[in-house]
Amino acid sequence: MLRSSGRQWLSLCLVMSFALLSGCSGGPPPAVFNPPLGTVRPSPSPSSSPLPSPSPSPRPVPVKVAIFGDSQATALFLNRPASLAASLTVTDASISACGIMPGLVVSRSGERFDLTSACPNWLSKWRANAQKAKPDIALVVIGAWDLFDVQTAQGKLAFQSPEWESLFLSNLRSGLAAIRESGAQIALAELPCYRPRTTNPRPPGYWPERGDDARIRYLNDLLRRVADGAHIFTVQPAAAFCADPAVGDNTSNRYDGVHYLRPGAAIYFDAVVPQLLVLPS
Predict the structure, then answer these.
(1) Of 15, 178, 203, 254, which has the most beta carbons under 10 Å away?
(2) Structural element, H or E, at residue 16
């Protein structure tokens, strides 16, 4: 983890608290960020034929990237490694505590959160932020609020039900279309495995559904279904968030098992940046 002065770290903690994040810690700096060149494959719909991979020729750096999404996106922006600037020029277009599903999110832990009240204008904000930033690539980081049953004005939508799935895909496509109006290519970030804890402060709280890897896999399948291989692609986080408890369940990486601190953000970008650099223009 990068070291910082007490004043700088206190400022970061204060900013993070407004993003519904809490808890900051210090530690040693990460290794120098020097991503290898990689390739990325577009994720076709299960009902379509496989799409060709884009050319692995890297883009000229730094690439203009705007990060859209919820407080995970906010945390990634705030805790990005300084050396990231050699590869990406990053703009914050995130909206903390803001998923793309309407209504009251309900957890089996009894926790509830009204997304409609928290972010009624997320779609127009995505459009405005994209037009303002004019990024080459929009990195869309969602999912932490999209793993639950939702109580709407029309009734309860159970997670993974046909009605829930239809609404999620409709809202996601609307959001991506709003970003695409700016001309940006879209990198739709697949979810890592989350490791929430009963000891989490509130906010962010426990929200145990986030720790259900089957739910993560299902939502990632939906994200891949939206990718078209031309303007919308999926990018994958580091596999270690799922495969290695020393990474995925490490409070230095994600203090609550969800939101990234500096070491976790470095691991995230180390995996994702090589995929961004080879997305077609």
Answers:
(1) 254
(2) helix 6-18
Altogether, the residues listed in the chain come to a count of 281
* Residue 85 tokens, joined: 């600037």
Closest by Cα among 162, 154, 168, 279 to 223 = 168
Q: Please state the domain extents for the chain.
A: 62-277
The CB-based long-range contact list for 209-218 (8 Å cut-off, 24+ gap) reads 209/107, 209/108, 209/147, 209/148, 209/159, 210/144, 210/147, 210/257, 210/258, 211/257, 212/147, 213/242, 215/147, 215/159, 215/160, 216/143, 216/147, 216/191, 216/192, 218/160
With 0.85 as the threshold, say if the pTM is over it. no
Which run of H or of E encompasses 239? none
Mean pLDDT of 244-269: 98
At 246-258, the pLDDT tens digits run 999 999 999 999 9
**Residue-level pLDDT at 37:** 30
Per-residue tokens: 28: 């040693």
- What is the rounded distance in angstroms from the CA atom of residue 8 to the CA atom of residue 134? 29
Give the pLDDT confidence score for residue 243 in this predicted structure. Answer: 97
Maximal C-alpha separation, the chain: 54
Tell the CATH superfamily of the 62-277 domain.
Answer: SGNH hydrolase (3.40.50.1110)
Of 84, 89, 86, 85, nearest to 64 by C-alpha is 89
% of residues, the chain, pLDDT over 70: 80
User: Residue 26: what residue type?
Assistant: G
- Using the 8-state DSSP alphabet, how is residue 258 labeled? S
Query: For residues 159 and 215, is the Cβ–Cβ distance under 8 A?
Result: yes
Token pair belonging to 42: 């577009």
Alpha helix ranges (H) inside 157-212: 162-180
Give the per-residue pLDDT at 55.
55
Helical (H) or strand (E) element with 256: none
